[in-house]
Amino acid sequence: MADLRKPSWLKKRIFGSGRTGEVLCLLKRKELHTVCQGARCPNLSECFDRGTATFMILGEVCTRECGFCGVTSPLSPLRSGEGPVLGKPEADEPLRVAEAVAELKLAHAVITSVTRDDLSDGGAGHFADTVRAIRRLNPSTTIEILTPDFKGAFAVLSAFDNAEPDIFNHNLETVPSLYHVRPGASHARSLSLLLAFKERFPSVMTKSGLMVGLGESREEIFQALEDLRKHRVDAVTVGQYLSPTARHVPVREYVTPEQFALYEKQARALGFMEAFCGPFVRSSYRAGEMARHRERRAPAFSGGE
User: Fold this and answer.
1) Measuring CA to CA, which residue among 148, 129, 42 is closest to residue 89?
2) What percent of the chain is modeled with pLDDT above 70?
3) Is residue 173 left, alpha or beta, with left meaning phi > 0 and alpha meaning psi from -120 to 50?
4) So where are the chain's domains?
5) Between these two residues, 99 and 298, which has the higher pLDDT value?
6) Residues in Cβ contact with 202 at an 8 Å cutoff, skipping those fewer than 6 apart
7) Phi, psi at 210, each rounded to 5°
8) Strand pairing report for 54-57 and 33-34
9) What is the average pLDDT score of the chain?
10) Domain 89-292 superfamily per CATH
11) Residue by residue, what is the 3-state secondary structure of the chain?
C-alpha cells in the first residue's frame, strides 16, 4: 500500500515557549514520565505550553506490544538503545506526581500508566495511591485516571473504594475486527471493565476513546459507540490514528473533518453527555472540560436515532 499524504487538516504548527521548558524541567526533576512523550502525541507542545500533561505511572515499559502505540515494550528497544527493564512500582511515585500537580497548579490531572500484566493487581493499587496523594496535596484538583484492562480481574477495582477518581477512562481503541493490533486485549473485556466500574461507582463519570483510520468502516464506529452507551459510558473521544514510526501499523485512511462531525452527531444522539471527535482529539483532549460537566448524568441508553 502506497504511503498516504497527510491532508491539510492534519498539518499542525508545532510551537513551544518557556512554559514548555518549565514543564519538561519539572518532569525531569521529579523523575516522572508522561504519555505525551511516550506515545509521541501530536498535541504535546500545545499541552505543555498550557502547563498541562498526562502523567504516566508504573514506569515507561509496557508488557504488551500494541501495533499502534509508541510506548516502549519488552519487545522494542528504548530510544536510548538500552534494553527495557520492568521494575517494581516506586513507592514514592504517587507523592512525586501529586507534588508536580501542585507545582503546575493543575485544575484537572490525568493519570495513566503502561500496562503491567506482571503485577498481581495490574497496578490498580498504585493508581489508587496516586489518587489519594493528589487529593491530599490538591483538594480542589479533579482527577481522571486512564487505566489498562487489569486482565479482566475486576475485583481489583476495590482498590478505589476509598480513592474514587472524578473520571474513570479506559480506551476501547478500535473496533472488534481490528483487535489484532491489540494483542492481549479483548473488546468484550474492555466493555465489561467500563460497566463494572460504573456499577461499583455509579457517581463517577466513565469515558472511553476510539482511534479511526486503521481500516474500520463508518458502520463499525457507529456500532462501537452504541456498544459503549449500552455499557453505561458517559463520555467518548474519537481521533485520527497517526502511526508513531514506520514499524507501527500504517494509517489506512485520513478521516475527514466532516466524517468526524458525523461521529460526534451520532454520539450525542446516542446520549453521551460529552463527545469530542476530531483529527487531533486524544483521550485527554479537553479533559478538564469534561470534568466540569461530570455532575451531569447521561440518560439511559435508548438505542439512539
Assistant:
1) 129
2) 80
3) left
4) 89-292
5) 99
6) none
7) -130, 145
8) antiparallel
9) 85
10) Aldolase class I (3.20.20.70)
11) CCCCCCCHHHCCCCCCCHHHHHHHHHHHHCCCEEHHHHCCCCCHHHHHHCCCCEEEECCCECCCCCCCCCCECCCCCCCCCCCCCCCCCCCCHHHHHHHHHHHHCCCEEEEEECCCCCCCCCCHHHHHHHHHHHHHHCCCCEEEEECCCHHHCHHHHHHHCCCCCCEEECCCECCHHHHHHCCCCCHHHHHHHHHHHHHHCCCCEEEEEEEECCCCCHHHHHHHHHHHHHCCCCEEEEEECCCCCCCCCCCCCCCCHHHHHHHHHHHHHHCCCEEEEECCCCCCCCHHHHHHCCCCCCCCCCCCC
Q: Is the Cβ–Cβ distance between 156 and 179 less than 8 Å?
A: no
Closest-CA residue to 193 (of 109, 122, 264, 125): 122
Distance (Å, rounded) from C-alpha 114 to C-alpha 72?
Answer: 9
**Residue 106 burial class via C-beta count within 10 angstroms: exposed 0-12, middle 13-18, buried 19 and up:** buried
Beta-bridge mates of residue 72: 61
pTM score: 0.87
Question: Exposure string (b/e) for 32-62, b if CB count within 10 Å is 16 or more?
Answer: bbbbbbbbbbbbbbbbbbeebbbbbbbbbbb
Q: What's the rounded Cα separation, in Å, for the pair 147 and 131?
A: 13
Q: Are 62 and 184 spatial neighbours (Cβ–Cβ below 8 Å)?
A: no
| More reliable by pLDDT, 26 or 58 | 58
Amino acid at 137: L
